[in-house]
Amino acid sequence: MSHVAFVLGKPPKPSTIFPEVIERLGTAGVDASVHLPHDDRVDQTALDAARLVVHRGLNSAGLDLVRELHLSGTVLVNSYPGVLQLSDRVAMMRALQGLPVPPTRIVSTWPEVAAAAGERRCVVKSASGPGRGASIVVGTAQELQIDRGLPPPYLVQDYVVAGEVDHKLYVIGDEVRGLLKPSPLAVGHTTEGAAFTPAPELIDLARQVRDRTQLDLLGVDVLVSETGPVVVDVNDFPGYRGVEDAAALVAQHVLTRLDEQG
């Protein structure tokens, strides 16, 4: 029997996809174990026996374990290089070069932020830091005169005018699902969203981001402006909240990756 290990940042709640994913794998004849390195709950024997390791939500110490697995040749979902790349927004922007992203300037100090913004309304992001929240501020050059306390260096991006709705594209292998969510720049973080069927253009864009980032499971934040879709953020292994068939798709993708190993 094949074995899959789940290395997670916190115990999986019943409301997450993991219980159903593990159940579906069991039905398909695949054994699974859950490991919680943040709580020092790792069964090294079971981990070593795994043909594939799925990981999510790990801190730097947890990612050290993933790095060791990567170096040992263990098949990972998501890949260690892909996850590491997303922790550095400068590296992520380089990976997305050629795809539609906001015009971006990279500066090292806060006084340079206002100068880079000029007369435009801009979004300022710390090069490090997860998600589109505390590590992001919005403003004009005048509004950005005061240091907001973000760690340097900074990405200064043109503000994309697209209403107050994000097109969140959830990618699971080749499958792409969509949710319309209020922009966190307008209302803050929210888990609420309305499902929508992504247009072929958005599906193709999401798959291109997948290929550039070397990720199997990812979320792509897209703003649809008058000139077309613009990628504004990428997250590895989202929670897929609101995606009804997410657990089935993730389980099937894991089975596909196992089959690829022969």
How would the blueprint of this fold be written?
Blueprint: E1 2-8, H1 18-27, E2 30-35, H2 44-49, E3 52-56, H3 60-71, E4 76-77, H4 80-86, H5 89-95, E5 104-107, H6 110-117, E6 122-126, E7 136-139, E8 154-158, E9 165-172, E10 175-182, H7 184-187, E11 194-196, H8 200-213, E12 217-225, E13 228-236, H9 246-260
Helix pairs in contact: 1-9
> Count the helices. How many?
9
The separation of the N and C termini measures: 13 Å
Rg, Å, rounded: 19 Å
Task: Name the helicity range.
Answer: 25-40%
Q: Look at the structure and give the mean pLDDT.
A: 93
Provide the spatial order of strands within the biggest beta sheet: 11-10-9-12-13
What structural class results from the helix and strand content?
A: alpha+beta
Low-confidence stretches: none
Task: Tell me the count of domains.
Answer: 3
CATH fold naming of the largest domain? Rossmann fold
From the spread of the alpha carbons, the general shape counts as: globular
Strand content: 25-35%
CATH domain class of the largest domain: Alpha Beta
Please identify, by name, the CATH architecture of the largest domain.
3-Layer(aba) Sandwich
Fourth-level CATH superfamily of the largest domain? Class I glutamine amidotransferase (GATase) domain
Number of DSSP strands? 13
List the secondary-structure elements in sequence, H or E: EHEHEHEHHEHEEEEEHEHEEH
Major sheet summary line: 5 strands, antiparallel
GO molecular function: ATP binding; inositol-1,3,4-trisphosphate 5-kinase activity; inositol-1,3,4-trisphosphate 6-kinase activity; inositol-3,4,5,6-tetrakisphosphate 1-kinase activity; isomerase activity; magnesium ion binding
Protein name: ATP-grasp domain-containing protein
GO cellular component, one term: cytoplasm
Keywords: ATP-binding, Isomerase, Nucleotide-binding
